[in-house]
Amino acid sequence: MRLEHVIEIIENTDSDLFEDAIEQFNAHGIVTDAQLPFLDIVYQSAPDALCQRLMGVGCKGRPQVAKGVLSNGYIVFNAELFDEAEAVDKHKASAFSNS
Fold this sequence. Notes:
Strand 2 and strand 3 form a beta hairpin. 51% of the residues lie in helices and 13% in strands. The chain has one domain. It has a three-stranded antiparallel β-sheet with strand order 1-3-2, sandwiched between helices. It is of the alpha+beta class.
């Protein structure tokens, strides 16, 4: 899929679809790809565009995308609160405590 198409998907996705994820991000500084309505191609091809969109619809801080620890997923974390390693560790701890 071309980058232009991926960016178009990001821009045209109704923000109501990820309202809960924005609340989670603002409260805890981290969300998983399972909480957002995007396919892996978005995280792989256009992470900066995704982060800009998230900021534009209410995510506070500085969203950044990182590779998660479970089933090749992704996380979006607030880089004002965590560095990438801390965010991945937080995700890992949360995932294993929910198992």
